[in-house]
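Side project, low priority. Logging it here so it doesn't get lost.
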Amino acid sequence: MHLPDDGQARPDAESSAIRVGAAELTRRGIAMPLDSAERPKRSRELPVFDSGRSRTPDEMDDAVYEHIKERAAHR
């Protein structure tokens, strides 16, 4: 990673002081905010749809193909 000349002195000094390479110091600096970040949790489960009948894989493939064909025709 490249920092402007005035931005490189502090990381160099810190990596020397704690006896860690500049790459490791950079990895730690990136990991810190990512490790402490909280991801929003899903408020509810994803919906499940039931068509009322099961389809074979071939029937599902045919339905998807027909849907794509219809959408392409409208373009």
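Brief comment: Helices lie at 5-17, 22-36, 57-73.
Revisit when time allows.
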